Amino acid sequence: MSKHGRALVAMSGGIDSSVTALLLHEAGYDVVGITMKTWDYASSGGSRKTTGCCSLDDINDARAMAVELGFPHYILDIRSEFGESIIDNFVDEYLAGRTPNPCVLCNTHIKWDALVKRAEQLDCDFIATGHYAKVREENGRYIVSKGLDHAKDQSYVLWGLKQENLAKTIFPVGGYHKKEIRDIAAKAGFEALSKKAESYEICFIPDNDYRGFLKRKRPDQLHSLDGGTFVDKQGNTLGKHHGYPFFTIGQRKGLGIALGEPAYVTAISPETNQVTLGPREDLERQTMRVRDVNTIKYPVIENGSKAVTKIRYKDQGKASALFWEGNALEVVFEEAAEAVAPGQSAVFYDGEDVIGGGFIARG
Questions:
Q1: Lower CB count within 10 Å: N or C terminus of the chain?
Q2: Whole-number Å distance between alpha carbons of 148 and 178
Q3: Half-sphere exposure (CA, 13 Å, Cβ side) for 337?
Q4: CATH 2.40.50.320: does it fit domain 283-362?
Q5: Read out DSSP for 149-183?
Q6: What distance in Å separates the CA atoms of residue 354 and residue 174, rounded to the nearest whole number?
Q7: At what angle are helices 15-27 and 56-69 packed, to 10 degrees?
Q8: What whole-number distance in Å separates Cα of residue 5 and Cα of residue 124?
Q9: Does the pTM of the predicted model rise above 0.90?
Q10: What is the dihedral of CA 241, 244, 249, 251, to 10 degrees?
Q11: Which residues are catalytic?
């Protein structure tokens, strides 16, 4: 009988989730491994070898560690749920002129719900993942905070998790730096794992070509949008493009147009198939609207609360104040934020702790 309880570990086959299982096993947990099959990688149609998580090789790597350490390992097929919720949303968001956040949606609506359900079926007390983040209980709330390794911190993609799921969650690698995780794998005899490369792509777009993915998923719609126009903020036509879904707010490279000076995408209009270009200063926004807000640190975000708000994964964050406007939050930045992209996540921090977050509705 385990002295700590039974933990269901989400194992992608990568080093972080594998060392998560290793750390819990060595700590005396009764570990059960599970790998979620989310996508048929052969059907992605990409031009490059799969490097995303949970490919067949990754599934085999996860199972090999389970066999080596002597704990059970299962494969959970969630392709149907993933396709309906994540893939369709990803495409629909670009067609709506927004920039989607598939990892947040996947964590919130697919992976954690699937893990909790399977944990109950397998009599597991906890679920564990390889995210670089921390979770603690304080005053009856389960609070997500930044991982020790700020360069790898993944708290940004966890803002949507509900309290009942956080109550069962463990993040074992959150208290380590990445180098330490590689050293732990090597010292435990998993030399190949310790040198395994990381994946930075969206898991269902292993070649990192989201434009090609959109074309394959909605060829007729994308073809009909060819011949859109670039305009400046006064509405003057600057040139032609192949469709507004192929652009994101703040984009500078790959525009397919030369204006003699640096130009950035500052606005996208699905109604007119227009993409507005302008100088960098046109990207600055003093306020933004955030929808679908989930609170973590406090039951309610008080009107006028101060926070450091991040508007993208690698953003350092900016000091801001939060004001309720109906069911949405109006975020007022002390200094203007740059390239606020509707569809992306806004995450509010109090020091290391995640106050909550939501999706950007308007910049």
A1: N
A2: 10
A3: 28
A4: no
A5: -TTT--GGGGTT--HHHHTTEE-GGGGS-HHHHHH
A6: 14
A7: 10
A8: 7
A9: yes
A10: -30
A11: 106, 203
The domain locations on the chain are: 6-194, 225-278, 283-362
CA distances from 105 to 109, 151, 330, 340 (A): 6, 22, 22, 19
Res 50: pLDDT? 46
What single string gives the DSSP state of each residue in 199-226? --S-TT-TT--HHHHHHHHSHHHHHHTT
Strand partners, 70: none
Per CATH, the homologous superfamily of domain 225-278 is Adenine nucleotide alpha hydrolases-like domains (2.30.30.280)
Multiple choice CATH, 6-194, 3.40.50.300, 3.40.50.620, 2.40.50.140, 3.30.360.10: 3.40.50.620
Structure-token pair, residue 223:
């073809």
The CA-to-CA distance between both ends of the chain, in Å, stands at 54
Distance of CA 231 to the CA centre of its chain: 31
- Helices (DSSP H) in the chain: which residue ranges? 15-27, 56-69, 79-82, 88-95, 102-105, 112-121, 163-166, 178-187, 191-194, 210-217, 219-224
- In this structure, of 157-161, 179-183, 258-262, the range with the lowest mean pLDDT score is 258-262
Pairing relationship of beta strands 126-128 and 169-170 according to DSSP bridges:
parallel
Q: Cβ of 304: how many Cβ atoms within 10 Å?
A: 10
pLDDT band, very low/low/confident/very high, at 52 (cuts 50, 70, 90): very low
In terms of Cα–Cα distance, which of 166, 198, 152, 206 is closest to 18?
Answer: 198
Per-residue pLDDT band for 324 (boundaries 50, 70, 90) equals very high
pLDDT digits (tens, 9 = 90+) for 198-254: 776 788 887 889 999 999 999 999 999 999 999 999 999 999 999 999 999 999 999
pLDDT tens for each residue of 55-82 = 778 888 999 999 999 999 999 998 888 8
Question: Strand 73-77 vs strand 318-325: parallel, antiparallel, or unpaired?
Answer: unpaired
Q: Please tell me the chain's helix, strand, coil percentages from 3-state DSSP, rounded to the nearest 5.
A: 30, 30, 40
